[in-house]
Amino acid sequence: MTALDEYDRLEASGLWRAAPDAQRTEVVVSIGDATVIISDLRDRALTHWSIPAITRANPGHLPAIYHPDGDPGETLELAAPETAMIDAIEKLRAAVARRRPHPGRLRLVVLLTSLLMVAGLALFWLPGAVRNHAVSVVPDVKRAEIGRALLMHMLPVTGPPCRAAGSTAALAKLATRLPPDERSGNLMVVRNGGADAITLPGGTIVLNRALVEDHEEPDVVAGYIIAERLRARAHDPLDRLLDRVGLIATFRLLTTGHPGEAALTRYAEHLLTDPPAPLRDEVLLDGFRAWSVRSTPYAYARDISGETVLPLIEADPFEASSPEPVLSDGDWLRLQGICGG
Fold first, then answer.
1. Full-prediction pTM beyond 0.85?
2. For residue 169, how far is the Cα from the chain centroid?
3. What are the two backbone dihedrals, phi and then psi, of residue 338, each rounded to the nearest 5 degrees?
């Protein structure tokens, strides 16, 4: 380090003591390259103090008392009139302090970085990992139980499932005609609710009565069932629930076997009010092809003008042929009366 040019001719009077039992001696203090020079009144150098090793014994008080770092017995006392020299020494000490490594600061930075990494893991990785684990370990019986509990939270809006005499057998035939990839393929029809079709954990699909009462052919309700089967294939209904209700409810499911009533209430509101996840036309057409159902009736049910669903109409896999009927005419009529008119 080199002393600042503005201090190269600065001098001051002070009192220097070489040891605790020595007499204080009047000296002349000047600043050289990287040192404070203490000289007697005949300009003979008595000692040199390295500026990086100077310590002030009484910060903020006057007269200012300095000593070499580690040797408080040797002191230099600068009285109040020598403020220029005091300010110079303090400025040089501050410059040295800024250039020194700060292990405490480094430890703090490392600690904060570690905490941020842990927080990031907790925020971004942990919820997904816990949710994936829950989805992988919850058995089908428990999924169905959660689905029934979720349905109970929907009933105040949807009303109870419709079960008019003779219609439940037709609904069972429709479920058999459109089997899922796995798990339950049960269907139920309810009187009200904003959603057309909802898949519960466990695989049961809840259908709005309008799908069977307001259309002339069963291919429409079959299309909505196929769309729900495809959504369940792409995103497990239990995973959707846990993703929505959050980490605490997921932990509760893993520890108690139930995500909590409040979580189910929130998710029921979401299912009944928010639109379902969109599906690409190619995915839908593959589904209609796999389950042997015409896509055109479903497309016009979604958009009577056909403008927004044109690919489902033009690429109908059974436009030029007749697949196996979704239901017989008799079963379809019985299914249309499932809610008792």
1. no
2. 46
3. -65, -30
